[in-house]
Amino acid sequence: MQALGPNHGALFALLLVCSLWACTPLATGDRHSGSKRPDGGDDASIDSAIEAGGGSGGSGADDGGDRDGDAPPRQACDEDEPCQLTSDLEGICVGGECVQCVRDDDCAPTSLTCRQAYCTDDSLCSTRIVEEGSTCEGGYCNEEADCAECVVDDNCEQSEICDAGRCVCQPGFVLNTGDQPGCNLDDCALEDDNRCAQPGGNGCTNTDEGYTCSCDAPWIAGETDAGPQCFQGGDGTFATVPNGATWMFAPSVVIVCPNVFAEPPLAQCVLDSNGDPVLGNVMWLNLCGLGPPPCNQLRANTEGLLVTELQRVTYSAPLEAYGDPSGDFVRDIDAPAPGDVIVVRTLGTLAVMRIMSVGTEMTFEWAAMWRDHCFAPGGASCTAACNCPLGQ
């Protein structure tokens, strides 16, 4: 073996130091000078490595190592001293390592819609979807991080619902046409929602505040607390029916049969399949030959489309201004007398009659108003205007 010279001895000593201390650098220069790194690289090469690995958003391990090559190793640093992650990105020195963030506030706000910047468990700045319903420019954030007009119904105007991120009118409502946002009840969509008597050929025009009626003769335009209406009759309009007669209020007082007791049936009385006179909505019957007093009675038809209910009320205002009925209705009104006001409720009309005289004939004032079906006997299907409990 060749003998070692003086220089060879120094080299041997250096190798020995490397083996014992993992080649701990012997330089004593400032490690923040930017000239050299402990691993032998310079700052420029570290910047390149970070940028190549996706900036500070790589997938470095929790201990700062780059286990799969996606994230650069973290630099050593002094506590409370600035540190540099890349040539243009400052970091924060924590536990002797330079990291991008510690708290969410350390991350710059993002310009992405419906996302927010935050600090990950790896001390890297990233973004995540904001809470659903958070406001964004022109709307609210949904779960897909899109800015939509609405997320829930409460984001919309009155009488609107949220449907697939858009505010639309509830069923039975239409968009307002004036300055007030939102929707209004389409009063003219159904006969149930207005009192214009459309089946009588009258017209209904919807407005943001309600509706207006155009009434064709013999219908007359009028107003009630419930809104505009078309009506027939009214105070000063009289009808006279003989005792034993049956008559209808749809659309006006028409005598169907002047005497349902006549034998044989009168020629002007229409007969049903059993040979009996067809009845109208209401009958005035003289029952004196059938039982003890009271022997006069108003009786309502209870069959088919002519089904009717009666109610005796106290009322002194114009008949055509009678509002919505309430209270209990019955089939029979015993002993009708002058001054009585009788409400006649049918499937098609609400009629009010004020009895003027009773004898062998009965004379009364009357008014017939087209009315919505919220008050149909038996509870017809409820529309938006009715606001009925349980939909009836």
| Strand order in space, largest sheet | 15-16-25-24-23-21
Low-confidence stretches: 1-71
Rounded mean pLDDT is: 77
As a whole number of angstroms, the C-alpha radius of gyration is 46 Å
Q: How would you describe this protein?
A:
- It is a single chain.
- This protein has about 400 residues and is mostly beta strands.
- Strand 7 and strand 8 form a beta hairpin.
- The strands form 8 sheets. Strands 15-16-25-24-23-21 form a 6-stranded antiparallel β-sheet, with no helix packed on it. A 5-stranded antiparallel β-sheet has the order 18-17-19-20-22, with no helix packed on it. The chain has a 3-stranded antiparallel β-sheet with strand order 1-2-3.
- Among the domains are: about 35 residues, no CATH class; about 160 residues, no CATH class.
- It contains 2 helices and 25 strands.
Topology diagram in text:
Blueprint: H1 6-21, H2 43-52, E1 83-86, E2 89-94, E3 97-99, E4 115-119, E5 125-129, E6 135-136, E7 139-141, E8 147-148, E9 160-163, E10 166-169, E11 173-175, E12 183-185, E13 203-206, E14 211-214, E15 220-224, E16 227-242, E17 246-248, E18 254-257, E19 282-286, E20 296-300, E21 308-313, E22 332-334, E23 341-346, E24 349-358, E25 361-370
Antiparallel strand pairs: 1-2, 2-3, 4-5, 6-7, 7-8, 9-10, 11-12, 13-14, 15-16, 16-25, 17-18, 17-19, 19-20, 20-22, 21-23, 23-24, 24-25
